[in-house]
Amino acid sequence: MPKYIYSLQMKVRDYECDLQGIVNNANYQHYTEHTRHEFLLSRGVSFAALHEKGIDAVVARMQLQFKTPLRSGDLFESRLALRREGIKYVFQQDIYRLPDEKVVLKSVVEAVCLVQGKMGHCQELDRLIEE
Question: For 68-102, what is each residue's pLDDT tens digit?
């Protein structure tokens, strides 16, 4: 089990569901992205500020494993762990339905940083791993 360093509670909105009454698969990517952004903001790191400094963090690979569907009105918690593997920043992001803690999604998101247009380490993200 990963050591989560951040979590964010959310609620499924009606328009995120498909005709089957479950959350459309693409919305899970939105949930994980929103969680990453909120995590960075909670630690004082802004994508806009990084971009102004010539640093762009981009998703290089995403792996999603759907376990249990969410439905309209469901409360859930998106949890995040972070580690570095070489040049990659690896976000382990899992979603749990509340209050029963049923696993909804297991995901791994690999990001890289372009520093002045070249792949490199980002001090701001490195600092978050060291915390």
Answer: 999 999 999 999 999 999 999 999 999 999 999 99
Expressed as residue numbers, the domain containing 11 is 6-130
Name the residue among 99, 108, 86, 101 with its Cα closest to residue 36: 108
Q: What is the mean pLDDT of the chain?
A: 94
CATH for 114: 3.10.129.10
In a domain, 1, yes or no: no
Please indicate whether residue 56 is annotated as part of the active site.
no
| Type and span of the H or E element at 89 | strand 88-98
Domain-located, residue 92: yes
Residue from 14, 18, 56, 94 carrying the catalytic annotation:
18
Is residue 51 within 8 A of residue 114, CB to CB? The reply is: no
